[in-house]
Amino acid sequence: MTDFTSLVTETPAEHPFAPFVRILGKGKRGARNMTRTEAREAMGMVLDEKVEDTQLGAFLMLLRHKEESPDELAGFTEAVRERLHAPELTVDIDWPTYAGKKRHLPWYLLAAKCLAQNGVRVLMHGGGAHTAGRLYSEQLLGLLEIPLCRNWQAVGEALEQHNIAFFPLGDWAPQLQRMIDLRNTLGLRSPIHSLARILNPLGARCGLQSIFHPGYQGVHRDASSLLGDHAIVIKGDGGEVEINPDTISHLYGTTDGQPWDEEWPALSDRRHVKPATLDPHHLVAIWKGDIEDSYPQLALIATMALALRGLGLTRAEAFAQAEQYWANRNRSI
């Protein structure tokens, strides 16, 4: 006897998340951006795990194809912040690090460490080694003695004792980490890589952001403006918050909801030669002063100046302060 599946004689109810997929995917003429409210609601459902895996994959890839709008990024951020339950901790700089480096070593780690030695409180966060062939912050924390924290209490203690803490995304926003980890399943990076840079989970005085692809910097700045955040967005080396001293750097800033722009000239007359290999111990040697190397010193001093610019100093003041910090650093490691 053959068993047949039951006939569908009644139209099944639509899944509550389906309208958001339809907004993004309803053809060339029917698709549109989500409003800020719609984006907040959609991300809220994702974070509350009220979405099917198939819907999530479709949602992320439709966003990736369309490219996120400022309203969508602002709405997503609001949904995340509403669910964080983070403690009230004083932070000066929010420093997202999600890209990894492949052309140069992550000199931004020395910049952050040097700022922390001088009383600037820095929260760093990242999403792990998601792409082969890159060097990630998480792989170097022990070498550089940057505290790795696995809960908010440890973050507070590290900030009090060392003025710097690294908090993996998976420990404070596991749903977002899961979406980042879909990169090798879907074959493309999802918009969560961009979203994580905006989150500023502890409401730091200034959020630094780096977006490598042209055109996205303004979108991120506009999203931060909508949120009322003080932020500076750059096209950093390799997608990390690190000034490339060989090129002009454009700062896309926002303060009190008002955008501003600033252009920093290149710091070198000619381009430096890219190193043949990336040896992490070169970071330690530069920190200790065992070797001199033009590119890293220019890069890390300019990156410190970027952070200090975000804390209210003028460009000239920021560079002078950064150079003083670097010259007087505690070289033990």
Report on this model:
It comes from Pseudomonas graminis. One of its GO terms (biological process) is pyrimidine nucleobase metabolic process. GO terms for molecular function: 1,4-alpha-oligoglucan phosphorylase activity; thymidine phosphorylase activity. This protein is an alpha/beta fold and 333 residues long. The protein folds into two domains: 65 residues, Transferase, Pyrimidine Nucleoside Phosphorylase, Chain A, domain 3; 235 residues, Nucleoside phosphorylase/phosphoribosyltransferase catalytic domain (Pyrimidine Nucleoside Phosphorylase, Chain A, domain 2, 3-Layer(aba) Sandwich). Helix content is 44%, strand content 10%. The chain contains 16 helices and seven strands. It has a seven-stranded mixed beta sheet, with helices on both faces. A hairpin with a 2-residue loop joins β6 and β7. α3 crosses α5. The longest helix has 17 residues. The chain is elongated. The mean pLDDT is 95.
Number of strands: 7
Morphology call = elongated
The helix fraction, in percent, is: 40-55%
- For the record, give the distance between the C-alpha atoms at the N and C termini, rounded to a whole number: 76 Å
Count of discrete alpha- or pi-helical segments spanning 4 or more residues: 16
**Under CATH, the topology of the largest domain is which?**
Pyrimidine Nucleoside Phosphorylase, Chain A, domain 2
**Strand portion, in percent?**
5-15%
Kindly provide the name of the CATH class of the largest domain. Answer: Alpha Beta
**CATH-derived architecture of the largest domain:** 3-Layer(aba) Sandwich
Write down the overall mean pLDDT.
95
Low-confidence stretches: none
The radius of gyration computed from the alpha-carbon positions, rounded to a whole number of angstroms, is 21 Å
* Neighbour order of strands in the largest sheet: 3-2-1-4-5-6-7
Structural class: alpha/beta
Largest sheet: 7 strands, mixed
Pfam families: Glycos_trans_3N
Protein name: Anthranilate phosphoribosyltransferase
Keywords: Glycosyltransferase, Transferase
GO molecular function: 1,4-alpha-oligoglucan phosphorylase activity; thymidine phosphorylase activity
